[in-house]
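Feature request disguised as a bug report, sorry. It would help if multi-protein outputs had a clear separator. Right now it looks like this:
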Amino acid sequence: QLQLVESGGGLVQTGGSLRLSCTASGVTLDGYRIGWFRQVQGQEREGVSCISVSDGETYYLNSVAGRFTISRDSAKNTVYLQMNDLKPEDTAVYYCAADRALFGLGVVQTMCTGKAIRRNFAAWGQGTLVTVSS
């Protein structure tokens, strides 16, 4: 059974950087899409960045494009989110999730932007807290 574990969160000052890791166990991530989502208490969870592990296609939320980079290391069964130039509004709990149910065009973007589909994701991690101080 697929399990995801996030790591790398912490406290950083505005303008700083963090790298989050999402490591999978139980199955290989080939054939999956992995997404990073974030949630502030009392607000909806939003898709930050998603990637197709097989071909590397990516999607970024507009507010993080140019600052965040998602990547995968198939040998380590891990997906990373490099976050640079962090801002206080990036403060949230960050979760990774895995999907392979979606099909068709634009599935990487759909994984990040769709809401109803999240209930069908194969797995969610437990979350890691990112706090950006001003």
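(second protein starts here, but nothing in the output says so)
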Amino acid sequence: QLQLVESGGGLVQPGGSLRLSCAASRFTLDDYAIGWFRQAPGKEREGVSCISLSGSSTNYADSVKGRFTAFRDNAKNTVYLQMNSLKPEDTAVYYCARNIFSRCGSTWNARTWYNYWGQGTQVTVSS
């Protein structure tokens, strides 16, 4: 069974940093674009970022631009989300997901383009 596994979440103070990882099993990530999404309690799941197959193209939600960076190491079959200057409003469960395409596209944050999802990792930003 194809699997995506997120890790790296935790509790961090405002202004701190975390790096999330998304590892794949039973398929190679480097055939697909990969998205990051998050869901806060009582809110809809929203797109955070998308990174293309090659890693040369990335997209970000306006709320995280300049603070979050997605990158990938295809040799390790892993995609990362570096999160800096974290805010309490970044608190959510973060998910990675496999895009059906190799590129993210202008509607990268639409869940319809993603066919496999990880189980999520909790990120809590609090003092």
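Even a blank line would do. Unrelated, but nice: The mean pLDDT is 95.
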